[in-house]
Amino acid sequence: MEQSKSRLELLPVESIQAIQCLIENVPDLLSIILTCKAIYKAFLSANGLMLKQVLTNEIGSEVLSEAVLADSISRHVPVSDDVLDEPDNLKAYSNLKIFDSLFLSKIHSHVVYFTNDLISKAFLSAIFTKNSPIPMWRQLPASDEEKRRIQRTFYHFQIYRYIVYGGKTPFRAHLHMDQNRIFFNHFSVWEYKQLACVHDYMFRIIAPGFDELVDHDVKWAEHRMQYASFDDPEYIEPLIARGLFAIRDMLEAKSYEQICIAYCQDSPNYSSHLLHHGLRNSTDGSGEDDDKFVNNRLLELRVMENEWEMTNDAENGRGSRPSKESMERRGRIYLAGGRGWWTAEDESKVVWPHGCAPWDKPKELDRWNTKDGRSIDEAKEFIKKLKLPTLR
Q1: Share of the chain above pLDDT 70, in %
Q2: Are residues 326 and 274 in the same domain?
């Protein structure tokens, strides 16, 4: 008996394809095309067109080119210095496969997540929460145009990560020292000012987890790790350079074990020539480009009324690293073989190779008790007093 077909399967191929083009994201498209053979065949006959349309539905035409470029560069091994000049990267949009589209969908979900988080944190800033009367425009949510601008900047950040960061391989010095030619010269000054804002945001959201390890991890104390600092970012910059996927893992890590996995138990690779260095040494751009930056809005917000001054460690309430007592105690634990989480109030979470600290092991009893000597003498005296029978 022939199996009955659904009404969707009975539609003409063109109608099925039109329905597929209305789907809002790639994962849903993948789920639908795997439901039956007819829908799958309809997809295969025009997969490029449908993937392009569904990606446009999901990502938006305004930022899709940045997303495609990020995907293309992510698979561009080795990365050439003129990768941003290569027109073939944008041609990849017409030749997308399903796995490319799934990657684009995944990276866009991270971009949307960070965009919404940045906006929510920005509106919690003191600029927007003062008791003074707030103009009406400040109370409005971020517009779609504003969100797309922020999304585009996050894509630029991820593109930078794919070009400069070498992953598990050593950082490539020629990329570090020539970031203007390789990256920043391709953008106007207002665009990399926005990139600086994203960098600042990334620094702030991963710093708490980083500082947790500096405060409590035994191994990081042995490595003399310092708190996250904008003035001395050599150790936290490689963490930022891991990109959106890794940073989201860091942000969502809650337990010590999760933080260790996200931040890596070993101390991070050292580098002083990543995005922080590139932004500080980027070219000033042209005056025309600089006019695009929203200076008037900054003036209305009164952000720059007072000149920014750096606070010293004493005013911050702590030094560049934990107290001397904390460092010395964890150093002693490390040398004794202990690893893991430590606090001055509770050392029970430290992991020891033999189950406990050497100084907590129960002492073995001496073979002879100190009282044994007296007991033997008493026994001798007792025997002397005994009246033993004489032998005849």
Answers
A1: 68
A2: yes
